[in-house]
Amino acid sequence: MNQYSPTVDVHAHVLLPEVDALVAGLPGHAEAGQLDARRNGPAALAVNGPMVGERIPRLTDPAVRLAAMDAQGVDIQLVSPSPSHYHYWADEETAEKFHRLANEATAAHCSAAPARLHGLGLVPMQHPEMAVRALEHALDQGLLGVEISSHAPGRRELSDPAYEPFWARAEESGAILFLHPFGCTLGDRLDHWYLSNTVGQPAENAVALSHLIFSGVLDRHPGLKLLAAHGGGYLPTHIGRADHAWRVRPDAQDCAHAPSSYLKRLHFDSLVHDPYVLRELIRVAGADRVLLGSDFPFDMGTEDPLGALRAARLPEADFDAVRGGNATALLRLRKD
């Protein structure tokens, strides 16, 4: 590891068989799986099973993970549970059990190489009154924060006032909040050609971030350390339309400043699959707000995150910032 400038991947996942075993067969689990199957469509499901199966060792075995990181030239990963572990269908008792188990299992995985693996936990966003307690539990395990989806069942958006205590505690504690959608509310319109992911994920990112911006959440909690997966989806490259609405529409003015200004308060991973889109993300958000991300080890990620970053032909200072400098600061990693 380069002691002065580690390469840090902030978008990497772990699979937790303990969580799957805990929820298997519980009321609501089968229904959630059926909904996910409908949203993805049969062709996608036929691909997903073998794809995940081939990657199980990298998702569960720290030694295999570290060897893969070495091959990629990655020194440090920020490891988050697979979004398939959200289980936002769960009742309060089940949610209490599985989020604690997920936090503890993620911390145990990372403890195999504490200098190279740092973790994020989970919180039951379907039960806002439990979110602060779940965040505290994650931090108590030595995790750096938690991973959240773009919304919770019942159309509970991230702008819901019920989340205010959660945002306040996350801000106060300095916890990392990794916004990573799972599923898409556009439903069966996207059940062909893997549109549930290729269109659905960036759409969900854009909607969730827009709720946080337009509702004033980021005005009330300017110190939130919020990291958006997939480069923030469609929002950063189409932020001009949001700014225009804010200027001309009274119903779009619940935030204090133009929406584009909030991009410089957020953080984004670099996983946009296009060097020109990455350059635009850096232009609108700032080179200090973009962090290297690979979606390790899934097929919709990149096997060569550094190669993808080099393809953007950034100035050297910007390249080094995205490669690891920004993550070192955000995650408060030691440089020695």
Topology:
Blueprint: E1 8-14, H1 17-23, H2 29-40, H3 42-54, H4 56-60, H5 62-72, E2 76-81, H6 92-110, E3 117-119, E4 121-122, H7 128-140, E5 145-148, E6 151-152, E7 156-157, H8 164-173, E8 176-179, H9 195-198, H10 200-214, H11 217-220, E9 225-228, H12 239-248, H13 259-262, E10 267-269, H14 275-285, E11 290-291, H15 305-310, H16 316-330
Parallel strand pairs: 1-2, 2-3, 4-5, 5-8, 8-9, 9-10, 10-11
Antiparallel strand pairs: 6-7
Keywords: Lyase
Protein name: Amidohydrolase family protein
Pfam families: Amidohydro_2
Detailed description of the structure:
This protein has 336 residues and is of the alpha/beta class. The chain has one domain (8-330): Metal-dependent hydrolases (TIM Barrel, Alpha-Beta Barrel). Helix content is 47%, strand content 12%. It is built from 16 helices and eleven strands. It has helices spanning 17-23, 29-40, 42-54, 56-60, 62-72, 92-110, 128-140, 164-173, 195-198, 200-214, 217-220, 239-248, 259-262, 275-285, 305-310, 316-330, and strands at 8-14, 76-81, 117-119, 121-122, 145-148, 151-152, 156-157, 176-179, 225-228, 267-269, 290-291. Helix 1 packs antiparallel against helix 6 (92-110) and helix 6 (92-110) runs parallel beside helix 7 (128-140). The N and C termini lie close together (10 Å). This is Amidohydrolase family protein. Residues 8-333 form the Amidohydrolase-related domain.
